[in-house]
Amino acid sequence: MPPSRPAAATAGLTVLVVGLALQLAANLGPNRGPNTGTGGGTGGGARADAGTHLPATGADSGSCSPASASRPLPLPAGPLLQPASIPAAVNPAAAAPANGDYRQQLSTTALGWPRLERWCVWLEPVNASEPAALWEQRWWQASQLALQRWQRLLPIERVDDPAAAQIRLLRRRPPRQPGPDGRLRASHGRANLQLLEVTRAGQSRVEPSVEVLISPGQRPQAIEATALHELGHAFGLWGHSDRAEDAMAAVPGAAPVLELSPRDRATLRWLYGQPTRFGAPLQAEPVRAAGKQPAGS
Ligand SMILES: [Zn+2]
Which of 138, 191, 284, 294 has the highest CB neighbour number within 10 Å of its CB? Predict the structure, then answer.
């Protein structure tokens, strides 16, 4: 039994390729401004740099409603995630915090950075009646601890219905996958990204949809470190740090990383300050707003 998550890091970037035509820009409408302001008017344009929670929420009130429909987006053929060409900062000292970040390692999508203002996460529940309940509980506990680390930084809601979630954590060993050398490799964790058009509460929008597989066959701390890492991908950090002390390290060190490092946080902060179309309404549903009163309630 290997001591920690050996191949998890390199295998984390599984990407589903969606073929098909373009049509995107036409569908997607105008880019979302820095603050759509339809909610309670939380803080004007300021995002990313105030408080512990990064983005201002408010525009996503229906984001944890169960999906009534969802379909893959018609995207240009090719990998879903592509290396981003991040322009060098005019003033690097101002752009990068003292301890640095690894923004240059992140990949992005044709629709911009795959992140949301607010996430809904489903954690596979424990089936307590099974003989394996103890193992399941360990997995659940460790995964929950990892999720809590991210909850300190991002608006994340736990949901009971997988259909209400953009991120689903499954207690499952990822299938073996060919490594860079073509040989099949095992891993303890994997995050699979899809880009979907999802309708929630009558409103369609583009969402990243991430299935996170975390193997239960590890020590609790290794499960926790794996979950912390794979959740980082799910929340938009599609890339790896070159330092073992970061949760998003490409090659984990001997000791499992259970906390997000300053570099993890700095990279996340940078990411959530970047523009994206994810989460923006696709078309204003002709809601019966104006003259008519909605029926019921
Ligand atoms: Zn990874």
Answer: 191
